[in-house]
Amino acid sequence: MGTWRTLSLRTKLxxxxxxxxAIVLTTSAAIAHMYLxxxxxxxVDASLSEQVQLIEARLRALEHGRxxxxxxxxxxxxxxxxxxxITPKGEIADVAAASENERVxxxxxxxxxxxxxxxxxxxxxxxxxxRAMRVVTWRALDARGDVAYFIRAGYVIEDIRRAxxxxxxxxLVTTALALIVASLGGLFLTTxxxxxxxxxTRAARAITxxxxxxxxxxxxxxDELARLADTFNQMIARLDEAFERERRFTDDASHELRTPLAxxxxxxxxxxRRERPAEEYRQVxxxxxxxxxxxxxLTDDLLLLSRSESGRLVLNLAPLSLDxxxxxxxxxxxxxxxxxxxxxxxxxSEEPLRVRGDPQRLxxxxxxxxxxxxxxxxxxxxxxxxxxxxxxxxxxxxxxxGCGISPEDLPHIFERFYRRPSGETAGAGLGLAISxxxxxxxxxxxxxxxxxxxxxxxxxxLPLAEMAEEGQ
Length: 472
What we know:
Blueprint: H1 2-6, H2 9-64, E1 82-86, E2 92-97, H3 108-115, E3 121-126, E4 132-141, E5 147-156, H4 158-193, H5 195-206, H6 224-272, H7 278-309, E6 318-321, H8 322-339, E7 343-347, E8 354-357, H9 359-375, E9 382-389, E10 393-400, H10 431-441, E11 445-451, E12 455-463, H11 465-470
Parallel strand pairs: 7-9
Antiparallel strand pairs: 1-2, 1-5, 3-4, 4-5, 6-8, 9-10, 10-12, 11-12
Helix pairs in contact: 2-4, 6-7, 7-10, 8-9, 9-10
């Protein structure tokens, strides 16, 4: 068993192919040999049966002074080696034989079988000199229906047995040659069929994190191996994309962390160069605290994205009122809007909006959207939070009259570390990426409509509570 496990797939397929061929060929040869042997014996039995019945008819014709009947058929022309008349007691009454060596012993059990049979009975026997013979026995009845005598005829089938042995030898040689050809052909076919698998194996060994651009050549045929190669290439492409995304994430995160750390270092180095008044130290500490808070916020966002993409972040889903969450967020953002001289308004839905969601994440979602809208809308502008309901979704729109987004930047707006062009200091570029994940985690969708100079509108659609429960 251990040796079998170490064999290659090519060897195993060839073995099973040759084994199946051996079973099929051996079975076919056995059936052919058996069919020929039985056919030849049936032919001999039919000829001998016709002849013993003809002898019976002629004997009856002699007893009654009638003419001899002619044979009913000329299909069989074999001449018996011997013919015997046997009394009901099993004694030989008359015999016609070329020699004593061509006769076979009488078996009482055979006579008993023939006594109750309606057809002649044939059996294999051996002559006194060891040759194979086929013997047919028949009974003749008297007027009362009792056995008057038995008629037995035999024919030497040594030529038939030699023909059977020759056929058997031919079949064995043919089967052996066929198995040799089948093994070579099976090995050739499996080698050719598994050539692509070998290329896949070599490609898998050669591919590392540094050369994920390598691909396996897909054969023009659309068979299983072609689909395997195509699937392998798709897997490598996904790995390449994942590694590239992680590289960009690492580079961007390093860049984002480097800036506040450099600011902290410069502020502290400047403060330590000479003695300063307490007020200046307080200002330096305040600036350092701002950068630490920025670092803390950035670290929290990075951790949230990492946990969400790895599937380790679990949402606490429960039915809740989306109207209440939007009201609370609007009241929370009103002081910020007032300091920036912006008009922040709410357009409520005519019907209550209940969704199945995580209240903490949904608050984070709409806070991010409103914070972006307030950040990129100039003083005197307007930000509108609009709620509505469709048949299956709750719809929330955050619309502003800010600078808008250019068409070339629009497809990348939800990517990590993306920054919208602005005269103000932008954030780390993680807010919209987190917002998109929150929406997708709630089985919703988010998109943006924007024109440069005319503002932007972010649209969020979330399944209503009853629809979300049906989809569980």
